[in-house]
Design a protein that fits this description.
Number of helices of chain B: 19
Number of strands of chain B: 28
Largest sheet of chain A: 5 strands, mixed
Distance between the termini of chain A: 53 Å
Helix content of chain B: 25-40%
Number of strands of chain A: 5
Oligomer: heterodimer
Strand order of the largest sheet of chain A: 2-1-5-3-4
Strand order of the largest sheet of chain B: 3-5-1-12-9-10-11
Strand content of chain A: 15-25%
Shape of chain B: globular
Radius of gyration of chain B: 28 Å
Structural class of chain A: alpha+beta
Order of helices and strands of chain A: EEHEEEHHHH
């Protein structure tokens, strides 16, 4: 029953025999040992499990690992390069855009995608773009500030 | 001689970014579900699908036969495990036996019935479906008012009236106040059941070392030490053989201020199978089985004079308790009673609580815990009274506020408000929204058919829980400060922060007191094997009670540092500043590292002084602290859709002195948005059979980024005299202040239709009906 999959995660190749029903989030967290993406709802609502699949933000709790076979995945762990935080990570830190931090990895992945699509979003654009990621701590205001700050820095 | 970098700037009061964040923004923090151990097994829990049912039989054989399943435990296996504890005591309180697994009967949907242990998470989940339970469904009751009506099904057969307790509190002469009143207004007000919805669900990893008889529980909790004491009792384990670790905690909001069946159950399983065990709650379980909040039906009466002077306040409070008492369940509505007079000079009050069992998951502390309900009540009643008297709601409030010269103020409910300046935040908020001109604008808008309203909430809250005699488990907090031989500083706090940022704020306090850079300090918490006994983080107490403990431990340490400084400098005139002791006569200095090193090397000791540089302080607060503030909402109701658009949200909060304004803003924003969730969107709905209809995030609407307004927040500063930092606590303020401001604004928008009150949540359907049926719902 098991199927062999090979995928590239954060620039590194991973290959495993997996059950077809294994969810991508469980593969990332338990097989690949990347516990940055979290499980908050198992139903694609909360976005804590958001990763980039071939450069596009997806919710890895409702994808099977076999669907990622042969593809490229970026998780929060793959964002900082050479010890340098990604500008969105840096902006989340500076603007106090997180409290308990549980939604943060998914939120940052979505914010990064949002800025790639629209480098100068309005507040309304940002709020709309983050609709699929729930945060119970911050009230979103500092997250909006962080996305604005990251955009301003990129545009400067 | 001195080598330490001199720190000249103070850090308390600065917007300093958090020291917690690097691990959280890089995905390298460790939450419970991130823990892996060799040989770790996985547990899944079978739960009741019925609100009330008798269990005729359970057949676990088919599950046990599934390859990979190593054990299944049911109610008959856990007889030795003690009941889930209720920490609150009230006279005559009925406490149902609350075992960790049901045996012959289930009392709510989600009630744990069996636990499956397997080598793999997926196998454990599969095996749940193989357990055969023969239920005999029984009538259920989920509405607290229906539950106390004659003929209702009994939640617990031994108490057919479904009343867990009644509670009466009185102050002054309410009878006389109502007799003499020129006007009396009455209103039924609901504070609906809410689901706390921390983004991280609960989870437990348990590991048992048989040879040492040592059990370690990793749990997503707000109270590691209390959990350790209580779970040790449940398991019959010596407390010093139980270690509780709280790894990163992904939000609590009160829902993890508890001791849950699963925490003891996983300890039991680990001891049985002698392998590490992990249980992670699913979101559906989280909604069905983790405590809910609120759940009030309140009947208010206010007595007043025609000039607006308030005289008396009466409350009949019906509290939906759910099927059991969790840790603090029956105590929560008593906090509503304490807080019911709000910021006003009500000298005559009377309250009656009826605590009611229902076939629902228990209610308990959820952000604000009793105070949002009280604030919603009194702030709605002030508007109801203002409408009756045709008085301006701001003017009515200003007329009845406790005066600045009346503090400490003894309330009719027995509290002593520490300090306040209640008019100032209101005036500031009114200026910010340009209240006077707004009323003109509103008249024009209404004439043009627009449903525009403004709502005021001037809230007060009781926080910094609290003096020990007034709390169920001790209300102090502890801190240890150690300076290592190299001069590096470790602060250990008994409060167990989980997002509030005390790793930063407590380091700010220590940096200022010792005069060392922030980077020389770490703050440790959440491991009972490392940190001295503590109480935890809840009730806006982390900084307001935990902070002073850190402060006083530092004062003890500073005295010791100075003694060593005097010895090393051979001087009696020494000042500790900038991370060094300076001889005021010669200007010579020794660094903190030199002093700490000398204290451990102990070649020579100052008189009557022990080696080492460690101080522990348990701080008992003399009183609660009482933050306050004013929130004003401007909203417009869409006539065609019933949708509420919040055009302005102004929050002026007074939480005393502020240690880190950036973090305080974050607390206010988050608090306000949870209040908005209650006001506009959220409601836990059970059907008459006890099914939780809002059982997933698809059906239970917590606010998303595009559903909330920009919050204009600012502060006034009235230091608390209760503690040396002058802080008051801010974690719950936003939630407490928010909901009445929203509802008052919408009622104001619809007031010309004769609308005087609307119960939360203010759904578009409810408002559309009101608009289109001339104010009748």
């Amino acid at each position: 029953m098991k199927r062999k999959i090979t995928l590239n995660i954060n620039g590194k190749s991973y290959s495993h025999e997996v059950e077809p029903r294994l969810l991508l989030i469980h593969y990332l967290r338990e097989t690949a040992g990347l516990t940055g993406p979290h499980i908050g709802c198992e139903t694609s609502i909360c976005g804590a499990c958001t990763v980039a699949l071939d450069g596009k933000a997806v919710k890895s709790c409702t994808l099977f690992a076999v669907q990622a076979d042969g593809r490229e995945v970026t998780t929060i762990e793959g964002l900082a390069t050479d010890g340098q935080l990604h500008p969105v990570q840096e902006a989340f830190w500076n603007e106090h855009a997180l409290q308990c931090g549980f939604c943060t990895p998914g939120m940052i992945m979505t914010a990064k995608q949002l800025l790639e699509r629209d480098p100068q979003p309005t507040e309304e654009d940002i709020r709309h773009g983050l609709e699929g990621n729930l945060c119970r701590c911050t009230g979103y205001q500092h997250i909006v500030n962080a996305v604005k700050a990251a955009a301003a820095k990129a545009g400067a | 001689m001195a080598t330490t970098i001199t720190k000249t700037d103070t850090l308390v009061g600065k917007r300093i970014r958090r020291r917690e964040d690097p691990r959280l923004i890089t995905g390298t923090a460790t939450y419970v579900d991130d823990i892996q151990m060799p040989g770790m097994h996985h547990a899944c829990i079978l739960r009741s699908p019925h609100g009330s049912a008798r269990i005729r039989s359970i057949n676990t054989r088919p599950a046990l036969d599934r390859p990979g399943v190593v054990a299944v435990f049911t109610g008959s296996d856990i007889k030795g495990v003690g009941p889930v504890p209720c920490g609150a005591s009230l006279p005559g309180l009925r406490v149902p036996a609350h075992s960790v697994l049901a045996s012959d009967r289930v009392y709510f949907v989600g009630h744990p019935v069996a636990v499956v242990v397997a080598t793999d998470r997926y196998v454990a989940a599969d095996a749940l479906d193989l357990i055969e339970v023969d239920y005999e469904p029984l009538p259920a009751v989920t509405d607290p008012e229906k539950a106390i009506a004659p003929g209702a099904p009994a939640v617990h057969p031994e108490w057919p009236d479904n009343v867990a307790f009644t509670y009466h509190q009185e102050g002054g002469d309410p009878e006389k106040a109502f007799q003499e009143a020129e006007v009396v207004v009455k209103q039924r007000i609901i504070s609906q059941r809410l689901i706390p919805t921390a983004m991280e669900t609960r989870g437990v990893v348990a590991e048992y070392r048989h040879a040492e008889k040592n059990l370690t529980l990793y749990s997503s909790t707000q109270i590691p030490h209390l959990l350790r004491t209580l779970v040790a009792q449940m398991l019959g384990l010596a407390e010093n053989h139980l270690r509780v670790v709280t790894p990163e905690v992904g939000g609590g909001f009160g829902s993890k201020l508890n001791v849950y069946a699963e925490e003891a159950l996983m300890g039991f399983v680990a001891m049985k199978i002698r392998k590490p065990i992990k249980w992670i709650e699913s979101r559906r379980e989280n909604f069905q089985c983790t405590i809910h909040g609120r759940g009030h039906v309140d009947y208010y009466e206010v007595a007043a004079r025609r000039d607006g002077t308030v005289l008396g306040l009466r409350l009949k409070l019906i509290q939906d308790l759910g099927a059991y008492h969790q840790l603090l369940t029956p105590a929560i509505p008593t906090l509503s009673v304490l807080m019911m007079p709000g910021l006003y000079k009500f000298r005559n009050v009377s309250a009656d609580i009826v605590g009611v069992f229902t076939n629902c998951v228990p209610t308990d502390a959820y952000r604000g815990a009793g105070r949002p309900e009280a604030t919603h009540g009194i702030e709605r009643m002030m508007d109801v009274l203002a409408a009756e008297l045709k008085m301006d709601p701001a003017e009515l409030r200003l007329k009845n506020f406790i005066g600045n010269d009346e503090f400490p103020y003894q309330t009719a409910t027995g509290l002593s408000y520490d300090s306040g300046n209640y008019a100032e935040p209101l005036k500031k908020a009114l200026d910010l929204v340009d209240y006077h001109n707004f009323r003109t604008e509103q008249r024009q808008a209404k004439a043009a058919g627009k449903l525009l309203g403004i709502g005021i909430s001037t809230y007060g809250e009781i926080c910094a829980f609290g003096p020990s005699p007034a709390t169920p488990a001790g209300g102090w907090e502890s801190a240890t400060v150690k300076i290592e031989p190299t001069g590096k500083v470790t602060v250990m706090t008994g409060a167990s922060p989980h997002g509030q940022g005390e790793e930063t704020t407590f380091a700010q306090i220590a940096a200022d007191e010792l005069g060392v850079p922030l980077d020389d300090i770490i703050v440790v918490h959440g491991d009972t094997a490392v940190v001295q006994y503590g109480i935890g983080t809840f009730g806006s107490r982390g900084t307001a009670v935990g902070g002073p403990a850190v402060y006083y431990a530092l004062q003890e340490l500073k005295a010791k540092i100075k003694k060593f400084g005097e010895m090393l400098l051979d001087s009696t005139d020494v000042t500790l500043a900038g991370g060094q002791c300076v001889d005021n006569r010669t200007g010579k200095s020794v660094s903190l590292a030199q002093i700490a090193g000398a204290s451990y090397r102990a070649m020579k000791l100052p008189p009557n002084t022990e080696p080492g540089m460690v101080a522990t302080y348990f701080w008992e607060p003399p009183n609660f602290a009482f933050p306050f503030g004013a929130h004003i909402v401007v909203s417009q109701v869409d006539r065609d859709t019933g949708q509420v658009e919040i055009q302005r949200y102004v929050a002026i909060d007074d939480c005393g002195n502020i240690i880190n304004p950036l973090l305080v803003d974050g607390q206010v924003h988050g608090g306000v948005v949870q209040g908005l969730g209650q006001a506009l969107y959220e409601q836990a709905v059970y059907d008459d059979n006890g099914q939780l209809i809002t059982g997933e995030l698809m059906d239970y609407a917590i606010p998303k980024a595009n559903m909330v307004p920009w919050i204009e927040s600012s502060h006034t500063t009235t230091p608390s005299p209760v503690n040396p930092l002058g802080v008051k606590g801010v974690g719950e303020a936003g939630t407490i202040g928010c909901s009445p401001a929203v509802v008052n604004s919408v009622v104001d928008a619809l007031s010309h239709l004769g609308v005087r009150h609307i119960d939360m949540p203010l759904t578009p359907e409810k408002l559309w009906n009101l608009v289109h049926q001339g104010g009748q719902a």
